[in-house]
Each structure stands twice: as C-alpha cells, then as structure tokens.
Predict the structure.
Amino acid sequence: MIDYVIIGDQDVVIEAGRSASLPAGAVAVSFTGKPSEALDKMLSEGVLVDRPATLSVTVNGNEVTVVDCPAGTEIVVDPEWGLAQTFTISTGGTTETFQLIDAGFYEVHVRPPLPTLPSSVEVQV
C-alpha cells in the first residue's frame, strides 16, 4: 500500500490515505498510524512536518484572551442559544480580550490563517 497526501494552500495536508496506487494529484509520503493523523501536518521539502501550534487562548471567569493573533484570524463566539458571532482580526500581532456577559455555555473557535492549526475552547459563564 502507498501512503499519500493531497496538499492544499500553504502546503497543508487536506487529504491523506493509503491506496494500492497513487491517486491523481497526490504525493507519496510515509507516515505511521492512521491516515487521519496526517491532517494536522504540512509538507515541507518533501517531508510531513507538524503545522504551527495554535494560538494561546486563556479563560479567566467570563473573560477570554487570544494572544498574538495574526491578521486574518477569525474568532467565532458560539453560544448554546442564539446566533454565533465572528470577529476577524485585521492587524497582526494583536491580543484580543473580550467578555462573555450572558450566563451560559459558549464555544470559542479561533481560526488563524493557514498553516497555523485552529483551536476551540468551551466556556461556562
């Protein structure tokens, strides 16, 4: 069997698998474990490497802080009720701090530009 990946923008792996023959557009690689484990990788000089770690997200009570956001980072605040809100960071190197004022459960998703990994945190206020 051939291990393979298909590469998207910023050399990020968007598909990984094993096959008897190499699919069109795929790159042959070697990985251990399940193919899905390669989805957090990127291709660098023909070798799979870890994508940059996600941004630091801290929660202190009802205050959420995301440190050193690059331009283009999306922060999605998704409450258990109502509408989710998306904020897009326009200036790189920004630390964003915001408060969740209504009681309840929230999911906060941080989606930095590729190749950095996204992250999520659950918050109870």
